[in-house]
Structure formats: C-alpha cells, structure tokens
Amino acid sequence: EKLELTVQSLAFHPELIEAMKGSLCHDFETGLPAAEVWEMYRGLRISQVVPQLLPDIFKKAELVEGDGGVGTVLHLTFSHGVAPLEYQKEKFIKIDHENYVKEAIIVEGGLLDHGFLKYLMRIEIIGQSDKTSTIRSTIEYEVDDEKTGNTSFVSTSALACLAEAITEYIKAQKSA
C-alpha cells in the first residue's frame, strides 16, 4: 500500500516529517529585581511599549485575542529592515508567574513562511539576588530538512535588544 503524504496524513503521522531541531539562548544581566522585570514581560504591557522602544525592529504590535494570559494572540508587524519577515502572529502558550517564565509560539507568518515547522520563544527572568536578575531568552525551532539553509534566519538578537531596551525602560521609569 502506497502512503500518500498530505497535510492530513502528516497530522496523524508526525514521525514522517523530516526536520532539523535546534535552539539558541541569550542571557542579559539587568541590575534589577526579578519581580520588577517580570511585571513588564508577564502580560500585554511589553507589547504596548515594544514599538516605541525598538522601532527599527517592530512597527506595531496588535492584540488579536486574549487578555495577556495563556491563549493570547498578538500580531506583530516588523519594520522594513527586518527582511525577509513582514509579520508574525504569536500565541502565549505558557505563563508561569511563580517561576517568571513565558513561552510563545509563532502560529502564522514569520519564519513559518520560510520552512519552519515550529518556532518557540521562551523568556525566563532568573533572580540572582534581591537586587539583580537575568533575562534568559531562548528560541527552540524545527525546520523542514529541505529548508535547513534558512536556519541562518534564527537569531536571539531581537530578544537580546528587547531585554536591554526593557531594562533601560524600567530604570528610566524608576528614576522619573
């Protein structure tokens, strides 16, 4: 019996998908307490300030559905210099207020349009002491074996810029 590979058959037989998996991680020392940093990342507040803080990367961030909790979907439009990406919709799949962990996956656009099967972004705010913390940004991805050349698009640079910009924003708000 010949097995025809269709989107439907792959949904029932994920082991048939040939994919390359990988991950990248970036740590940024904040000089701020973990709880203060988490207040920015925990819900929608970060999406409201990102286009102002990083206009060269993010043109706008719009709420598609949700209230900032698990299941929330954001539509991010990238600035023209972020080729080949135009936009992406990302969905919050985990928000752990106790351990300061937030995960989102791309559900439309972004690198999914370039052969990626999965693209997950994890932010962890790790308390180092009462006075300082680290923002750990992790990307986990799977890309179709025929598109492995596109793994060069995977980078933590936007998340690293975001960590630095959010840290500076919080410090500026505290001193205002």
Automatic annotation (TrEMBL):
One Pfam family recorded for the sequence: Bet_v_1
Q: Where is the signal peptide?
A: none
Where the record annotates domain Bet v I/Major latex protein, the positions are 19-155
Give an example GO biological process: defense response
An example of a Gene Ontology cellular component annotation for this protein is: nucleus
Q: Where in the cell is it found?
A: Nucleus
Cross-referenced InterPro entries: Bet_v_I/MLP, Bet_v_I_allergen, Plant_def-hormone_signal, START-like_dom_sf
Write down the superkingdom of origin: Eukaryota
Coarse class of the protein's main subcellular location = nucleus
Give the GO molecular function terms.
Answer: abscisic acid binding; protein phosphatase inhibitor activity; signaling receptor activity
State the family named in the UniProt similarity comment for this chain: Belongs to the BetVI family.
- Protein name per Swiss-Prot or TrEMBL: Bet v I/Major latex protein domain-containing protein
Q: Which species is the source of this protein? A: Aegilops tauschii subsp. strangulata (Goatgrass)
